[in-house]
Write a structure and sequence with these properties.
alpha/beta, globular
């Protein structure tokens, strides 16, 4: 399974792309930085979008991707892109963004029977077959509704879990501990430095110290991939991660890198 990092930053500044990953060229995992990071030909290969939650930094490029693909859909050269996530997350997108006020409703354009986008709600804990992979979503502690994802390639056994944005949570770790295999790869956030723990908890994010407390809930010891650092605090966060993640293999994600799971 191939993961390309389109963006992994927790703040939008020059040189820092917002959260978005491309899986096997056809699946987006969040959509914070898509159209500014991919040529149109690559955008046209996208078939699925997995959304962790409806905060703007994780969904904004759904809008611009739809705008870029409408001509292909009109010519019947591209089918509807399925937007997947928890039902309340998709409802937020429908109500507040694709509502013909903030942005055109691309779930009925160019026609009702031939749209650019189609909502496909996912139920927590229910595995879905998707482009040769198996995918499941589990709630986490962030936003009105939020979830992380586990993606598994049945052919190779390659897999990774992605929390999305989260504060301290329990159902997520309970699920991962129930898997019939040991988790090997985990993408998880570390948004704020330790000194900002109060703000992290209020906004339902993690610091390096809080991150270690969460990892201690997990029976396995996967390789940790760090995402969503607030760029203005990234140096401080990185220094604290070396202490907090003592005993773990960890890697700081970078925009544009490729990882094979």
């Amino acid at each position: 399974m191939h993961l390309h990092v389109l963006g992994c930053s927790g703040s939008d500044l020059p040189g820092y792309n917002l959260t978005s990953f491309l899986i096997n060229k056809t699946i987006l995992l969040d959509a914070g930085s898509v159209t500014s990071s991919m040529p149109l030909a690559s955008q046209a290969e996208i078939q699925e979008i997995l959304i962790t939650h409806a905060h703007l930094d994780h969904i904004k490029d759904i809008l611009f991707l739809a705008d870029n693909l409408i001509e292909l859909v009109t010519r019947n050269e591209h089918g509807a892109v399925r937007v997947r996530g928890l039902a309340p997350v998709l409802e937020s997108i429908r109500t507040h963004l694709l509502n013909d006020t903030i942005w055109p409703d691309f779930t009925v354009l160019p026609t009702f029977s031939n749209p650019v986008l189609a909502y496909a709600p996912m139920d927590p804990g229910v595995w879905v077959d998707m482009a040769g992979l198996r995918v499941v979503t589990i709630p986490v502690n962030h936003a009105t509704a939020a979830s992380g994802y586990l993606l598994l390639d049945p052919a190779s056994g390659g897999h990774f879990a992605f929390t999305g944005d989260t504060g301290p949570t329990d159902p997520w770790w309970t699920f991962l501990n129930s898997l019939p295999f040991d988790l090997e790869n985990l993408i998880i956030e570390a948004s704020f430095p330790n000194a900002m723990e109060e703000l992290a908890l209020l906004s339902k994010h993690l610091t390096p110290k809080l991150l270690r407390a969460e990892l201690d809930k997990l029976h396995a010891r996967p390789k940790i991939y760090i995402s969503h650092m607030k760029s203005t605090f990234s140096t401080e966060i990185q220094e604290q991660l070396h202490q907090a993640l003592d005993g773990y293999m960890f890697h700081l994600l970078r925009d544009g890198e490729d990882i094979i799971f």
